[in-house]
Design brief:
There is one protein chain. This protein folds into 2 domains: 1-36; 37-115, OB fold (Dihydrolipoamide Acetyltransferase, E2P), CATH 2.40.50.840. It contains no helices and 8 strands. The chain has strands spanning 6-10, 16-17, 32-36, 39-49, 61-68, 73-78, 88-99, 102-111. The chain has a 5-stranded mixed beta barrel with strand order 4-5-6-8-7. Strands 2-1-3 form a 3-stranded antiparallel sheet, with no helix packed on it. A hairpin with a 2-residue loop joins strand 7 (88-99) and strand 8.
């Protein structure tokens, strides 16, 4: 089974939230169904972190906040050398780090049409 990252869809009003809340921000209910975060969105902002822990192999990590077409906003690793605010990106799930030999998966955003 392919790894996925999930938002929560309120069973009562249908509002999507990510990360998951205990109470729906739309109606206050507490029942949700998981909805995979996938597809495309617009890059709202990004930053590069250079002060990474010693166990990172790369020199810096680029993180972006993306407003997905579903309406949720999600943070993930940008796989784009020269990101531009407002550009369309595509969400995937993949390895973002390795800890003690175990892969850690998370959201990754690539240029539209690429992974």
């Amino acid at each position: 089974m392919k790894d996925k990252i999930f938002a929560a869809k309120c069973s009562s009003c249908g509002k999507l939230s990510y990360p998951t809340h205990y109470y729906c921000p739309g109606c206050g209910e507490t029942k949700f169904e998981p909805v995979p975060i996938e597809g495309e969105g617009k890059l709202l902002t990004f930053t590069r972190a250079y002060a990474l822990p010693l166990d990172y192999a790369q020199r810096y990590l680029t993180l972006g906040i993306v407003e997905m077409d579903s309406g949720i906003r999600a943070t993930g690793q940008l796989l784009i050398d020269e990101p531009k605010i407002g550009m369309r990106v595509h969400a995937t799930v993949g390895k973002v780090r390795e800890i003690s030999g175990e892969d850690v998966v998370g959201l990754r955003f690539g240029a539209k049409g690429r992974g």
